[in-house]
Each structure stands twice: as C-alpha cells, then as structure tokens.
Amino acid sequence: MNPKISDFGLARIFESKQVEASTNRVVGTYGYMSPEYALDGFFSEKSDVFSFGVVVLEIISGKRNTRSYQSDRNLSLLAHAWKLWKEDRVLELMDQTLSETCNTNEFLRCMNVGLLCVQEDPSDRPTMAVAVVMLSSDTATLPVPKQPAFVVRRDLSSSASSSSKPEASLNSEFLATIEEGR
Question: Which residues of 59-84 are buried (b: 16+ CB within 10 A; e: fewer)?
C-alpha cells in the first residue's frame, strides 16, 4: 500500500514558525474530526486516533470520507465501511488498485483497526500505540468494532450548536483485549 499525506486544514491558522494556536471555534476538516471535537469542542489524543482511523479507511478504500457512497443512500465512507462490515462484504471496500497485490488478511486487519479508531465513544478507541501494534501484528486478536461515529450523515454546523448528543451504539462486545505495553 502506498502512504498518502493529508492536510486537515489546520495549517492555515498558523503563522510561520508558530508551533501552537488557540481558537474560539472548532477548526479543521469535518470529515476527519472526532464527534467530541466537532460537536462539543473537546479534544484529546483519542481525537487524533479518530482522524487516523478515517485516513486508514480512506487509504484501503481509495475513497474520501467527504463524499457519499451508494447512490440510493446518503452514506459517508464510515457508514459505507460499517455497512459492508456488518454484511460480511468487507472486501468490497478494497481499492481496486490494491486487489492484485494486497494480502486479504492485511486488508481485513486494516479495516478492523480503522473501524476501531472511529468509534463514537473515545474510550472505545485504541490508543495510537495499541493501533500501531494491532496493525503490525499478524497474531494479535482484534476487538470487534462497534458502530462508528457519524454513520448517519448530518449537518455538523447545526449539530454543533444543538444540545442533543449523538447516540452511541453498544451492540457488540470485545472478543479480546490487547494489553498495552509501556
């Protein structure tokens, strides 16, 4: 697989040689924002894990999260990936340019980790260290992902000002956990 680099739209708020910035509003590209940041302005290392999961799903699918998939429905990439996962049609997400060279088990592992990283609840997401272990290990037993955040496309600008919170899906349990080393 070829790595891709994404600009999440934050570079433009920085001046040259500036290493941090403070804003009074949510800044970034909505397709990569964690729900807790996009809706409530809360940011943590698990917000970065969410963005990483979106990028993983984009790389393995060759699709962007900022478009809709399946013409009869308004599905984001996350919703499309989740639908295929639940219907056991995971390989349909694979970027056609990968189909001849990609190891199927590697693809399934990447999709599983990508879905784990985009969980609605930050506590359900792995840390980056655990995500790296899951991606690089052929023997680690991976948890079963729950329904990811933003499965139903909605207007985030109006949701951000609303007091209602998105519902988290709690319909799957972990098969096993990966111990996090130091």
Answer: bbbebebeeebeeeeebbbbbbbbbb
The pTM is what?
A: 0.71
Whether residue 70 is contained in a domain is answered as yes
Residue 78 lies in a domain: yes
Q: Provide the CATH number for the domain around residue 124.
A: 1.10.510.10
* Total count of domains within the chain: 1
Total residue length of the chain: 182
CA 9 to chain CA centroid, nearest Å: 17
Tell me the C-alpha distance between 3 and 135, whole Å: 14
Could you report the per-residue pLDDT of 32-52, keeping only the tens digit for each? 888 888 888 888 889 889 999
Do 105 and 134 contact (CB within 8 A), yes or no?
no
Evaluated on CA atoms 135, 91, 94, 10, the torsion sign reads negative
